[in-house]
Amino acid sequence: MPYKELYTLEDIDLKKRKVFLRTDYDVPVSDEGKILDDFRIKESLPTIKKIFQKGASQIIIGAHLGRPENNEKKYLMDEVAKRLFKLSGRKVEKMRDCIDLDDYLPDPKECSIVLLENLRFHKEEEENNYEFAEKLAKLADIYVNDAFATCHREHASMHAITKFLPGGIGLKVEQELKVFDSINDPERPFVAILGGAKLETKLPVIMNLINKADTILLGGAMIFTFYKAKGLSVGKSIYSKEYVMNAKILGNNEKIILPKDVVVADSSINPGHVLTVTPDKIPSYLAGLDIGEKSLLEFKQKILEAKSVVWNGPLGFYENKLFAKATQELIKFLAEHGEIKTIIGGGDTAKIINDLKLQNKFYHVSTGGGAGLILLEGKELIALEELKKNTEIFKKEGK
Predict the structure, then answer these.
(1) Per-residue confidence at 392, pLDDT binned at 50, 70, 90?
(2) Could you tell me if 136 and 258 lie in one domain?
(3) Which of 5, 242, 378, 395 is deepest in the core (most CB within 10 A)?
(4) Which of 359, 300, 349, 306 is nearest to 328 (CA)?
(5) pLDDT at 1
(6) pTM reported for the whole predicted model
(7) Residue 383 in contact with residue 158, Cβ under 8 Å?
(8) What is the rounded average pLDDT of the residues 187-205?
(9) Residues acting as catalytic residues
C-alpha cells in the first residue's frame, strides 16, 4: 500500500484534541508480568512526541498484550504504564478498563497520557465488534494507528473504530510503509532471502518477488519441497506434498538458489546424530534442519554482490542452537556490511536479530511479522484499507 494514500500526522489538525492512539505494546513478559523487552514501547515515543508537538491535549493509548484467555494478571498493562512513564518522562495514568470510562478519564491538564487496559480482555476486540469500537471512539476526537504489527487484523481497535473516528497513521506505520514500498523499486542488484517451514506460507512472497529480485536465496524446511520436486529423497524432512508441483515449476527459474548442502539429524530437540550432506545424500532416517557451510558461503558471496537485501524467515530450526548457526552467522555477516541496504521483514528473523542485539545494524528491522509478510506478498493491509476508506468519507462530510 502506498503510504501517500493515507493521512499522516502532518496532514491532521490535532490542536486541543484528544487522540486515540493504537500502539504496538505487545511486548514479551515473564510469568510474573515483568517486561523482558521494551523495544516496541520505545518505538512509539516519536509518534507520541509528534502528537503533542501538534498541539493535542491528551493521548489515549489502546493496545493489546499477549493472548489472554481469562484476563490473566501477567497481561495487565500496569508494567507497560510504568515503563512508558519512565521512557516518555510524562505522567501516565492507567485505566481499570478500556470502555465505559466517562467518569474516570483524568482531566488533560492533570494527565496528558492515558493508557487503557488490555483491549483483548474483551472478546469484542478480536471479533471486530462495532458497538465495542464505538465505545472506544467516544474517548477521543481523532484516531491514529501506529500499530503496524496488527494492521493485518480485522479487530475493533484497528478496523471497526475507523467507522466512528477520522484519522491517519503514526510515524512508525508511515516508516514501515515507506520501507516496504521501496521494495517495488529497489537498488540493484536486489537479493531476497526467504526461509521458513512451509512453502505454502512463503509461496505468495516468492511469486511477488520473483519479478522484482535479481536473486532469491531459499532456506528453511520449505527447501525440501523443492528437493522432492527434483526427485530427491528427503528422508524425514518436512515438506509440503500438495506444493511439489509449484516447487517443480519455480525450481526451473534461474533466480532461485537452493542450498548445496544441508545439516541433517535424527532429532530437532535432542539429536544424537548430526552430519552435513548434499541434498541427494539425505539418509532415510534423518531430517534436514539447517543449511550447510558451502551453502552459507555461496549465500554470502551473492549478498556481497547486492546493493539491497530483504530477508524474511530463518534458514534452519533456530529454536535449537545447533541448527541456528547459518541464520545467526548470516545475520552477523549482514550486520558487518552496513553498506548493503538490508530490510528485515519482521517475524522470527527480527526476533533473532533483537536477541543478538543487532537491530541497529540494519537499514530497517520491521516490527510486524504477519503485516510485513502480507506486504511482501504485494497485498494490502486490511486495517489501513479501512482507515483510508472511512477517513475519505469523514473528509467529504466535513468532519
Answers:
(1) confident
(2) no
(3) 378
(4) 349
(5) 47
(6) 0.92
(7) yes
(8) 96
(9) 40, 198, 347, 370
